[in-house]
Amino acid sequence: MNKVVRRQGRYYFGESEEQSCYTFQFRDDVPEALERSFIISLDYDKGWDCSPLDVITGIVEMWEDFFLAPQLQKAKDVMEYLQKWEVQDKIESLLEEQDKLKKRLCEIEEELEELN
Description:
The protein is 49% helix and 16% strand. The model has no long low-confidence stretch (mean pLDDT 89). It is built from 2 helices and 3 strands, in the order E-E-E-H-H.
């Protein structure tokens, strides 16, 4: 399943302000040439906390408004890859959530048995 992690820090040498770095964790079949992280100025970072596709879509939409955005095409390539896997990622996410709920239900049943 594709995932995204956001970290805040100083990613440019000599830069005094912090930036956000969005790092994408892809499936095993990802093309090697696909970019895996993008650095965003905090002035433009919306603190996206959603699916990887929604994050990269937000980054692409933001960069499309810039006069110069050297990583725009790389971000579009990531967006295209994630769009292909959107449904499968949602299914896997729901199955993962279902599995967690089943485990929790078993724990609750064991606790109830102990109390009876």
